[in-house]
């Protein structure tokens, strides 16, 4: 049996949050390629539906969310980064079966239960952050997942639904057989608006110290740089931080040595990302998903807005290459692709 990476953690962990249509094997690899060794510890998959994975027909439609490419796998080993599958749903039996599948059929190092996604149609179905209002069902789900797998188990959630309930909700979760609790400092009602309340996250740390000292507390919300993460660890006592939207502002966030990134480096990464996306998915995944990343790379240089506009009109890697070549010619740059 493999060691529990949560329990042997000795330094603050830094992790990339699970994000829909973002943290697939391709983007995770791009982050790995551009992170400094030992600065990134945990990578999370896209949200994976337990209903879909347990459905005879739906299984093939969602299993790509748990795909790990050979090149990503190699980088994971080289950098000693752990990969965690995040799952969501509301049926305990399906959590059990999904946990079995992940443990037996994939190379993920751990499982995370999504009890925090605030998206309205998901919440209306009784899943994710809706479980904050159903603590007994949340307990059944955790116990079923634990029974289905010996993999390290974490829960990602929020400080409340319509109001802050850190004391009761976090105390409830700390009584469960989990290894880590990832806490986003907003309630469901806020979605992504307003500032994350790190004082409530700090309250969770205090509760953890009293109830279950072995469980790690990871803070999430408004971490915009590696240094900001370190500062929050020191100020609020968490065992690590999770970074979500911050990666869109700076895809080199896990490499503090790259404080300034020039145009050539940005566009080189854009092309590598595009090429890897095409090689990995080979037309089996919508090319349009890739476009959300173009604006990450196209900024802070002359002609960035115009280039981004042109890239948004593309529908293939070849068209992206042509747009980059045209931009390169106009600004007299060489060897971008």
Helix tally?
A: 15
* Adjacency order of strands in the biggest sheet: 1-2-3-4-5-6-7-8
CATH fold type of the largest domain: TIM Barrel
Give the helix level as a range of percent: 40-55%
What is the arithmetic mean of pLDDT?
94
CATH architectural designation of the largest domain: Alpha-Beta Barrel
Q: How big a fraction of the residues is strand?
A: 5-15%
* DSSP, total strands: 8
Indicate the CATH class of the largest domain.
Answer: Alpha Beta
CATH superfamily heading of the largest domain: Aldolase class I
Shape: globular
Radius of gyration: 20 Å
Termini separation comes to 44 Å
The helix/strand order is: EHEHHHEHEHHEHEHEHEHHHHH
Find the structural class using helix and strand composition: alpha/beta
Poorly predicted runs are none
């Amino acid at each position: 049996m493999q060691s529990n990476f949560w329990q042997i953690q000795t330094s603050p962990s830094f992790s990339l949050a699970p994000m829909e249509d973002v943290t697939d094997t391709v983007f995770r690899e791009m982050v790995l390629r551009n992170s400094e060794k030992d600065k990134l510890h945990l990578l999370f998959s896209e949200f994976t539906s337990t209903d879909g994975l347990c459905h005879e027909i739906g299984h093939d439609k969602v299993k790509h969310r748990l795909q790990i490419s050979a090149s990503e796998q190699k980088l994971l080993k080289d950098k000693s980064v752990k990969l965690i599958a995040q799952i969501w749903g509301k049926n305990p039996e399906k959590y059990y079966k999904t946990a079995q599948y992940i443990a037996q059929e994939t190379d993920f190092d751990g499982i995370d239960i999504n009890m925090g996604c605030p998206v309205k149609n998901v919440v209306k179905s009784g899943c994710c952050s809706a479980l904050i209002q159903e603590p007994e069902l949340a307990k059944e789900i955790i116990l079923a997942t634990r029974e289905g797998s010996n993999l390290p188990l974490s829960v990602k959630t929020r400080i409340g639904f319509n109001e802050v309930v850190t004391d009761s909700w976090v105390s409830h979760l700390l009584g469960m057989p989990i290894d880590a609790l990832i806490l986003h400092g907003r309630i469901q009602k806020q979605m992504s608006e307003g500032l994350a309340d790190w004082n409530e996250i700090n309250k969770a740390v205090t509760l953890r110290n009293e109830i279950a000292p072995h469980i790690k507390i990871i803070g999430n919300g408004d971490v915009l740089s590696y240094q900001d993460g370190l500062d929050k660890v020191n100020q609020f006592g968490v065992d690590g931080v999770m970074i979500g939207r911050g990666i869109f502002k700076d895809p080199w966030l896990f490499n503090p040595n790259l404080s300034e990134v020039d145009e050539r480096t940005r566009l080189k990464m854009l092309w590598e990302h595009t090429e890897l996306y095409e090689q990995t998915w080979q037309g089996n995944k919508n090319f349009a998903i890739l476009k959300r990343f173009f604006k990450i790379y196209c900024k802070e240089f002359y002609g960035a807005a115009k280039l981004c506009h042109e890239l948004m009109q593309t529908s293939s890697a070849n068209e992206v290459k042509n747009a980059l070549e045209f931009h390169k010619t106009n600004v007299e740059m060489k060897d971008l692709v």
